[in-house]
Every structure is written in C-alpha cells, then in structure tokens.
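Progress against Task 2.4 (sequence-to-structure conversion) is shown through the following example record, which the project officer requested during the mid-term review.
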Amino acid sequence: MQPDLNEIRTAAEIVYSEMRPTPQYCWPLLCEQLGAPVWVKHENHTPIGAFKIRGGLVYFDHFARSGKLGSGVISATRGNHGQSIGYAARRHGVPATIVVPHGNSVEKNAAMRALGVELIEHGDDFQAAREHAARLADERSLHMVPAFHPLLVAGVATYGLELLGAVGGLDVVYVPIGLGSGICGMVAVRDALGLKTEVVGVVSAQATAYADSFDLRRAVDAPVSTRLADGMACRTPEPDALEIIWRGVDRIVTVSDEEVAAAMRTMFECTHNACEGAGAAALAAAMQERSRSAGCKVAVVASGGNVDRELFARVLQAEDGAFEGSDPGSRGQLRL
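Structure tokens generated for the chain above:
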C-alpha cells in the first residue's frame, strides 16, 4: 500500500525537523550532453549523502512515539540504509546494530561506525546479511528494521514531492532501484499529484532481479555481480515493492557497470558532484535512452554520493568502456 499525499506531507514535517529539502538543478553542460533539459535531484546533499535518511527519520519517529524500539534495533544494509538507521537511532538515543556483507564499502562502513552503530560483517551479499540480521534480532531481542516498509516509503517519498513540486511538466524521471523504497516513493507522489510523468526504474545489468520480475510479472531472484553499483545489488526483490512497481512504473532500464562509470564521470564533469554507482545509475539510463528523450523534459535522481575515494579515483581516471565485464568473475573491475 503506497502512502497518500497527507501521509507524505506529514512525513515531510518530520524530515524537515532535521534537514532542509535537497536542491534540484538543471545543469547546462548536462543538458548539452543529453540534448534535452535534464534536472538532477541531488539526494547526495543530505546529512548522510543519500536519500535513505528520510525514511529512517520517519520510521524512528513513529516507533519511538509508540514505544516499540525496545532496547535496541538491528538491520542489514550495503551502506546508505545503515547510515540512515544509525543517524535516526542516535537521534533517539537507541543502540543500533548493522549487518553488512563481507567486502562492503570501506567508507560506508566507517561512516556507520562514526554514527555509533555496532557493525557486523556476514555473508557474501545483502540477502545473506539480511537473513543473519533477522536471526540476531531473535537471539538478542532487538527490533528488526526492514529495508522496505510503508513508513520508509513515506519518508523517502518526500524527495519526490520536492522534485515534482519544484519542476513542472516533467515528462520522465529515472529512479534507481535497490530494494524499492525510492521508486515506490516517486510513484506515490506522481499518483498523489495526478501527474502524467513517466517513472522509469533503473537496475544494474549485473543485478537484474527487479527487471526480470517486472518483465515476468512474478518475483524472481537473480545473481549479483556488479562491482560498482552496490546500492542496486539486490538478489531477492521485495514483494510489496513489486506490487507498486508493477502498477506504477512505466519500464525498467538495465545499465552496465561500464555505463554507470561513464555516468559517474559525466556527472562530475558537468556538475562537479560525486555520485556513487547507484547514484549515477539514473543518469546512465537517461544517457542510454538519449534518442528516446529528445524533446522531453527529464529528471534523474542522484540517490547518493557515498563512493569510496579509491574507487572514485579509478573511475575518473578510466576511459569509457574500460570495465572488463565479459565474465562474472571480472565484471566491474577497472582496467587501468
């Protein structure tokens, strides 16, 4: 069930008690690159550098008032959701434990620890980390914060309310899909405002669970091999998110690690903003569909900027197409 306009506006009051709305800019160089007016929604400008903070603030506000956070919370993440939980938990004085897979972003891990969370590494991907977090929740009697929940959707929908309220007449908005809260929030706002804007999902070509599920109209798992778009590294789609996506998303575009790297470079060159892989994925999709968007007014969601320094430096130094992706063992490795 997606939030209505009143629920989103109520969520906005909670979000704005902690942070300002993020900007949406139409960058001339980016417009020149795509041959169309392109607006960037800068969710890389939040206090944690990602849109997820909005959902965490709303979720914790509700459960703190209802007294259901207990002695502590636990969740699983690839990084941005975990920072959101850590930020909101610290705000409410609640201990937080976060489970991440082995090999997770070094700097995202450091950011979560800086927020005071207990960080546990387990498993090879997000799904394994999530299952371990659920077991620990039972063992330690902790409140399990899911990665998808109606309150999280209502919270992150506030970025969509800002964008669609500030920029009129958008023909299409590209939104990256991790577990689905961001795109479901955008669909909710589009529908609540009665707009005709196309909402287009974006997934990694090396993590196609949502694209496959969208095409087949049933939930299917898919292997994950992306080395760049960790925020979209989903193996198992969320059923409730799929229901909203099936009803409200116009299409889903898949982008390779090579395309994501090119979009990260383009974003930096044209706007001097740093985006992580998932944060640049919407731009990658818009670049892929450049000819389709001719004459359209386009928006892309820069969902986060939390990319490790070493990786970002390698991406910036590489040339277009300089990712090896011919086999699962080499996908996403920069050829430098």
